[in-house]
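Archive transcription. Copying these from loose printouts into the bound notebook so they stop getting lost. Printout 1 of 2:
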Amino acid sequence: MTLAELQTAVDTWIREHGGYWGKFEILARLLSHEDILAAIAYGAEAGRERIIPVPTERVALGSSSMEISGGAARSCCGTQGTTFSGSSSK
């Protein structure tokens, strides 16, 4: 029996006894119940929105104080400073 004939015989037997499994069926057979729950929990945590609190009162930074309002920092001299954002990165 040649390799090609053997492959054909095995393929025929597999198809007669239920066929090939899909890629997700194979993965489900390899993973335990705990593995699946851990993957779901990880995905839920990774997709969770992060909220970063931004103070709205006067904050002393070094030798000068800055007032934080409207999402931007303004120094005591009135020039525009660093912008603080409460948005999250996903």
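Printout 2 of 2:
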Amino acid sequence: MAELFGSLAAICGVAFFGAAIKEKSAPKETKKGDVKLEIPTLSAIRLAHSRYKQANAGIRSPLIKLNASDLPPGLEVYLKLENMQPIGSFKLRGAGNAIAQKLEDGKQAELAKHGVVTASAGNMAQGVAFCAKKLGVPCTVVVPDTAPQTKLAATRRLGAKIHSLPFHEWWKVIETHECPVDGVFIHPVADQAVLAGNATIGLEIMEDLPEVDVVVVPYGGGALSCGIAAAMKALKPGVKVFASEIETAAPLKASLEAGKPVVSSAWLFSLLVL
């Protein structure tokens, strides 16, 4: 998965701690097994935003100015409050778009019989469960046996079934997209529709703050930063997008410096909130 999003981040023009990744060093598209990810087009992002509004699954989160007295003169910082979403996370944007696209792609019969399945231990589990419930689709979440009980309880409250696996088997599902549970599988990050759904945040930022110069995005699995960067690249290519990692779990920085994927145990543990 690190290969996928390292390359996609480069294509989208994501920078890391001030060091821009040049587009020419990245391939046109990236593959891992049967997975192929491309930059979401502006039309795909706008379609995702239309689906998001029609489904009424979440809110258009406010963009508010940070009231801080210690900022350098002339610098304005705005916060996009996705924590105000019904599940406290942006994840329902990508989840809802992915389920809606599956319905439009003729998978109604399979969805009605087996429902939708994702692999997550936290926020994506709740995002898929929340949107599936809204659309009347059964939901199963494949979780690692180390998943926090608070996250599992929240997911169950949204009507999802829980299928627990040993961590190494759960991680194989993330890497291979091969799920042991019947249903239409939605990958928590490496999914084209999830990327486009996440990119709707960038669309809203541009609409609410067209003079934006820089966007700083948390980097975990990579789908949020790559999605937002895709929207910025399409609407205002001059905007710089920075991926932000915590020092104790920063695989993107380490991978870029090493020139190959670097995965740490701390980063893997951090994925329990994906």
